[in-house]
What we know:
It is built from six helices and twelve strands. By secondary structure, the chain is α+β, with helices and mostly antiparallel strands. The protein has a six-stranded antiparallel β-barrel with strand order 1-8-11-10-9-12. A hairpin with a 2-residue loop joins strand 9 and strand 10 (286-298). Helix 2 packs antiparallel against helix 3.
Amino acid sequence: MNGNHSPQIETAKEELHALTGYVVAALVLSGWYALDRFRAGTEDGAFIRSNGRIEATEVDIATKLAGRVGDILVGEGDFVKAGQVLATMQVQTLEAQLREVTAQRRQATHAVASARAQVAMRQSDRIALLAQVRRAEAELDAAQRRLGRSETLIKEGVTSTQTLDDDRARTLSAEANVAAARAQVASTDAAIAAAEAQVVSARSQVEAVEATLQRIQAEIADSQLKAPRDGRVQFRVAQPGEVLGAGGRVMNLIDLSDVYMTFFLPTEAAGRLALGSEVRIVLDAAPDYVIPARVSFIASSAQFTPKTVETASERQKLMFRVRAKIDRELLLKHLEHVKTGLPGEAWVRLDPSQEWPARLALKPRQ
């Protein structure tokens, strides 16, 4: 009996093994497909994910001029406001220069007043000389009239030749006096022009000294190192008493209200992406918390690009740098908990018509 049914049993076993193999293969393929779709973050090509780290805008607080650090008024981890004084530099040398330039400004101001007085004095001299010119011209006119009468009388034989000669001499002397007076007026005009030039020069000196004064005052003001924006002190580089060169760093400030994640996407995804596209960020440290963000930057040129792109497979190597910025209002609500450097995933929605998956939906507390 066993011998009669042995071929049928063997055939059934083979069919069962084949069916089992098909089921296992189908399950494996199904699991691989689901895992692949999950890893790629695709739902009909609507979503894609990439890895990145949380970053924030950093500002180095540095001294503008070389000098010695006077005092540091904040510590690492402190939150500071824009305009708050964070550190001071010693300014004794600048204060001495300020006193020197202030004295130079007083001297320059006195020089302007002296030059103006010279102009006024020269103008008074000119008025007096003009009066002399008019008097000399009047004397010349009288001498010329007298000479004319003498020439008439000499023809009539009424006056003597000596009188005519005297009148001619008086006329020539009056002409010389007029010329001399006019020359003195011209000389005074030149003196006035020189005095006015002195006024301009003195005023220029005042402006130069005032510019130097403003520069020193600005340098004294710059010696108070102020926060350019709200933020938190990330670390201190220098200590009070240290001598720093121009541009020497004193501390580093991080703006926790300007936080973003930088990641890379392949060419196909980057080509479909637009500024303002929605992004969901999931951090490794808080996998159950979904952070909303929007694309704020897409690189105009590819990264990891081969020198010569000729084939489709090579074009798949093209990666574009993308930045997703977290909403400022959300950050301000959780400012004490914001940290940079945390790794996580950025999920990007390529198709705005698709709804976010449940695991990436925003929680009510957000």
